[in-house]
Amino acid sequence: MIEDKKSKNLPWVEKYRPSTLNELISHEEIISTISKFIDEGQLPHLLFYGPPGTGKTTTILACIRKLYNPGEFNSMVLQLNASDDRGINIVRGQILTFASNRTIFSGGGVKLIILDEADAMTNDAQNALRRIIEKYTDNVRFCIICNYLSKIIPALQSRCTRFRFAPLQPSQILPRLEHVIQEEKVLATEDGKQALITLSGGDMRKVLNVLQSTWMAFKDVTEVNVYTCVGHPQKEDIKNIMNWLLNVESFEETVREIKNLKTVKGLALQDIITEVHGFVHRMELPPRVLCMILIRLAEIEERLAAGCNENPQLSSLVSIFHTARDLVTIEN
After folding, report:
1. Rounded distance, CA 192 to CA 200, Å?
2. Where is the AAA+ ATPase domain (predicted)?
């Protein structure tokens, strides 16, 4: 009864997290390779990298269940996350102590140290880790997990077997999404499911989190409700914005209309630019004009990422399309 209550209160992303390697829905080559390593007792140091929500942590947690009995987890596995202090003192203290202590209950197995979100570690800490990895290889295996491979020093990369976890394909996400919808008895339309997959960008965690949020807010998971829940522009909103950008002659009126829409709907300019970018790619434009638009959109996106105010960037967005209209007229 207590287990059922605990399971009921779990977020769906944790409630439906795969617990074994066989339950994982993607990266068959990676899973089969790691399974073979474990079966043959030849597990190397591992480096998992790729975007969030692609199964990196879930994979190593499934490996733990295959490697050890439940009673051995505390003595055989050390897991450190980005929320933990992982400066040079932790590497020389907690990690070194765990790696150097052998256990008599493992039946000759190796310990496992998991460094999740390792791209948050300082360079000094990563450098201190190099010697520990080499010195205690007979006793310990490391699994380093990160989003950005470039933030892991080359010396650590060369000591590990690297696996890239690519964003999930819609065909991989959909069966798992259908399973959760069926288990939770959620009313979801086909366009609602498609909206979830489109917004996720291959992130399974985001799919389930947005699904649960939309269900709790609206009960019906439709395209409109999904976009409303996350504050993403609706398709009709983008059509209106593109109509103003392409057809309204007055610069001031275009800025005013888009600003009013942003205020009423609570839209972020970053999301608008993302949708405008996709819309532009579907338009038939002279190559020179298309290149100009894309370069300028990228510049606005860079300025927004750096923390610039949205109002001047909105004016810059409108100016792009006024310039583009003039260029198209000249070329014709």
Report:
1. 12
2. 42-171
* DSSP 3-state of 268: coil
Which of 262, 260, 257 has the alpha carbon at shortest distance from 244?
Answer: 257
Cα-based angle 49, 53, 55 (whole degrees, multiple of 5): 65
Mean of pLDDT over the chain:
87
Q: Which domains does the chain have, with CATH numbers?
A: 27-164 (3.40.50.300), 170-230 (1.10.8.60), 235-331 (1.20.272.10)
Q: Which two tokens stand for residue 76?
A: 């055989």
Contacts (Cβ under 8 Å, ≥6 apart) of 14: none
Farthest-apart Cα atoms in the chain, separation: 81
Q: Rounded CA gap, 146 and 125, in Å?
A: 15
pTM for this predicted structure = 0.81
C-alpha closest to that of 231 among 216, 248, 214: 214
In the chain, the amino acid numbered 118 is A
**What is the four-CA torsion angle of 184, 186, 190, 194, rounded to 10 degrees?**
-60
First to last CA, the chain: 73
Token pair of 54, please?
Answer: 């692609």
Q: 227, exposed or middle or buried, with CB in 10 Å at 0-12, 13-18, 19+? A: buried
Closest CA to 56 of 129, 139, 147: 147
For the stretch 252-308, pLDDT in tens is 999 999 999 999 888 899 999 999 998 898 888 888 999 999 999 999 999 999 988
Instruction: Note the pLDDT of residue 191.
Output: 92
What are the backbone angles phi and psi of residue 95, rounded to the nearest 5°?
-70, -45
75-86 residue pLDDT tens: 888 888 866 666
Question: Is the separation of the CB atoms in 145 and 48 below 8 Å?
Answer: yes
At 105, the amino acid letter reads F
